[in-house]
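Re: the request from the purification team.
They wanted to know what the chain is likely to look like in 3D before they choose a buffer screen. I agreed to run a prediction and write the result into the notebook, where they can find it.
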Amino acid sequence: MTLAQVQTEIDASYLYSQLAAHEEDPIIAHVYREMSDIEKSHAVLFAQKQNISIEGIFKPSWRAKTWNLIGTVFGYDHVLGAMMDTEKSIAAATLAGKEKNNMATLGTETTHVKILRSILENQENVTGSHIVKLEKKHRNVGGNAIRAAVLGGNDGLVSNFSLIMGVAGAATAQAGIIVAGLAGLLAGALSMSLGEWISVKSAQELYENQMELEMEELENNPAGEEKELALIYIAKGIPQEQAAAMAADIMKDKSKAHEILVKEELGINAEELQGSAAEAAIYSFLMFAIGAIIPILPFFFITGYKAVLVSVAASTVGLFFIGAAITLFTGKSVWFSGFRQVLFGLIAAAITFGIGKIIGISVG
C-alpha cells in the first residue's frame, strides 16, 4: 500500500463526509458517515502497516476537492456514482492481483456498494423506501454524465485535429482547411447526437411494453407481487421477517413496488428511461463540438504553417487537460495520463498529416 493508495482512502472518507453533510434523509446520512469512518480507519491501518506517518496527511487531495466542487455545482449524486465506479475498479484490481499471485480471496474485496447496502439494511428503523432511495442513487447517476462529457470532448478534439492535419498536409488552401474542419465538427457532432438520440429512444421503446406488463401483474395480483418482493430481499441475505416487513412497506406505494420489481426482474432502471432523448442528443452535440472547435480556431486568425503550429499547440494543451480530467475516474497521475493522451493524439494527427502530404504530392 503506497502513500497514493492511502490518499485514495483519505479522499473517500472526505467525500463520504460531504455526502452525509448534504443528505437530507438522516438514515442515509448516517450510512455515509459510517462509510467515512470505515475509509478513515482503512487509511490509518494501511499507513501504519507501511510505517507512513499519518500526521498532517488527512487532507483531501485536489482530486477529491474537484469532485466536491462538482457536487456543489451539479449535485452530490454525481459524486456518489463516481465513487461507486472507483470502488468497483479498486475491487476488480485487488481480485486480479490476488488471482495473479495465487493469493486467497477473503470476500472483503468486493465493492462498497454492498457495504452501503449492508449498513443500511442493518439499521433498526430501515424501511423499503430507504433501500429504493439508496439503490436509485447508486444506479441512476454519478460519474457517467461527467465521464461522457470528458470523452465526448476528447472524441471531438482527436477526430477533428486528425482531420485538419490531414487536410493541411495535403497543402490545401486556408479556406479549404476551415471548411473541412467545420464540416468535420458538424458531421461528428450530428452523428454523435443522432446516435445518442437513437440509443435513448430505442431503450425507452424496448422496455416500455415489459414495464406495462409488470404493472398489470402488480394491479391484478398484489399479494403475489408482495411475496415476490420479499423473496428478492431474502435472496439478498435479509432475514425473512424483515424482508416481509420491507416488502409490505414498499407495497404501500405501487410506483415504488413497480420500480424495484422492474429493476430486479427485468434489469431495467425506470429512472434512466425517463431521460429525454432530445436532451441527450443536444448534450452529445455540444460536448463533441467543444472539443472539435479547438484545432480549427487558429485557422480563422492565422495562415500557413504558423496556423498549423498554433493548432497543434492548442490541441496539445486540450489533449493534456482531457487526460488530466480522466484521472478523476482513474486516480492515476495527472502527468502520466495527460502526456499519454497528448502522445496518442499527436501520433494520430501525424499519421493523417503524412497521408495528406502523400496524397497532396500525388495529386500535384
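For the purification team: Confidence is low (pLDDT under 50) at residues 138-143.
Please add any questions underneath this entry.
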